[in-house]
Design goal:
Shape of chain B: globular
Distance between the termini of chain B: 41 Å
Shape of chain A: globular
Number of helices of chain A: 0
Strand content of chain A: over 45%
Helix content of chain B: under 10%
Number of strands of chain A: 11
Oligomer: heterodimer
Radius of gyration of chain B: 14 Å
Distance between the termini of chain A: 38 Å
Largest interface: A-B, 25 and 24 residues
């Protein structure tokens, strides 16, 4: 069966510091991968998604970036964090290739980021 | 552009009663999926139910069922015999057959009253 991991679970970082959040998926190959951010009590904002190694689509212009160095690894980064980067970050995956084979997304447990 | 609207920010229901969460969407596509996701206090997003637009039969998963009205672009979630563990934020979501992205509504927070 497939599993998705995210780490760290919680993170407290000062303004201006770098960020690296990691997401890995097991039990599948060539998945689509997604990064979302969720402010407290709010909906999900899609930040980035990837349909293959090295292929990144950005949905929201900001000081965050994403990379996919391996097939089942997705990394969210920032060189300098802002206060507004605080939130709950969720990684998700779906089956790659034909949409009708795997429409839904499956989510990781999330990372709670607090920028101080 | 496709949109998903959940008009009820919060709802409450008595334990063991039935509750219906509303969702409407806007699309010009004919082939798509609709979903309901649950986010409990742990904040883990859990897929509750999925509906393919080409299927006329409403999807059902145990106590969860949907009322899918394609012409009206309506997709409501009915929870029967509500339990305390059903307390969560519920998100309605849409995905076109032609897109890799899912569009989420803003969510409905469901409270279960003991």
């Amino acid at each position: 069966s497939q599993t998705i991991h995210q780490w760290p679970a919680t993170l407290v970082q000062p303004v201006g510091s770098p960020l690296s959040l990691e997401c890995t998926v097991e039990g599948t190959s060539n998945p689509n991968l997604y990064w979302y951010r969720q402010a407290a009590g709010r909906g999900l904002q899609l930040l980035f998604y990837s349909v293959g190694i090295g292929q990144i689509s950005s949905e929201v212009p900001q000081n965050l970036s994403a990379s996919r160095p391996q097939d089942r690894q997705f990394i969210l980064s920032s060189k300098k964090l802002l206060l507004s980067d605080s939130g709950f970050y969720l990684c998700a995956w779906s089956e790659g290739g034909m949409v009708w084979g795997g429409a839904e997304q499956y989510f990781g447990p999330g990372t709670r980021l607090t920028v101080t | 552009a496709q949109t998903v609207t959940q008009s009820q920010p919060e709802m409450s229901v008595q334990e063991a009663e039935t509750v219906t969460l509303s969702c409407t969407y806007d699309t010009s596509e004919s082939d798509y999926y609709l979903f309901w996701y649950k986010q409990p206090p742990s904040r883990q997003m859990i897929l509750v139910i999925r509906q393919e637009a080409y299927k006329q039969q409403n999807a059902t998963e145990n106590r969860f069922s949907v009322n899918f009205q394609k012409a009206a672009k309506s997709f409501s979630l009915k929870i029967s015999d509500s339990q305390l563990g059903d307390a969560a934020m519920y998100f309605c979501a849409y995905r076109s057959f032609r897109d890799d992205k899912i569009i989420f509504g803003k969510g409905t927070r469901l409270h279960i009253l003991p």
